[in-house]
Amino acid sequence: MNPLTIIWNFLSNTYHRLGSPREFYTISLYTTPVFGFLFLVLSLFGTYFGLFVAPADYQQGDSFRILFVHVPVAWMSLFVYVVMATAGAIGLIWRMKMAFVVTICSAPIGAAFTALALLTGSIWGKPIWGTYWVWDARLTSELILLFLYFGIMAVYYAFEERKTAEKATALLSVVGVVIVPIIHYSVEWWSSLHQGPTVFAEGGPKMPPEMLLPLAFMAIGFMFFYGYALFLSMQARVLDNERKSRWVKEIVSGKTN
Amino acid sequence: MANSMAPSSKQISAAQLSAIKLCCHRGDNQLFNDISFEVSAGQCLHVTGPNGCGKTSLLRILCGLNQAEGGQVLWQGKAISGNHAFFSSCAYVAHKEGLKNELTAIENLRYYQQLDARRDEVVLDRLLSKMGLLSCADLLAQNLSFGQRRRLSFARLLIANFSLWILDEPFTGIDNSGRELIETLCVEHLEAGGSIIMTHHQSLNDSPLNRYRNELALSKA
Amino acid sequence: MKNTLALYFQREWQLMFRNTSSMIQPLVFFIIIALLFPFSLPAEGALLQKIGGGVIWVSAVLATMLSLESMFHSDYQDGTLEQMLIHPRSLPLAMLGKALAHWTSTGLVLTLFSPILCITFNIPNEQIWVLFSGLLLGTPSLSLIGAIGAALTVTLRRGGVLIAIVILPLYIPILIFGAGMLSQSSQGLEVASQLYALAAILMLSLTLTPFAIAGALRVTIN
Question: Domains in chain B and their CATH numbers?
Answer without folding.
Answer: 15-217 (3.40.50.300)
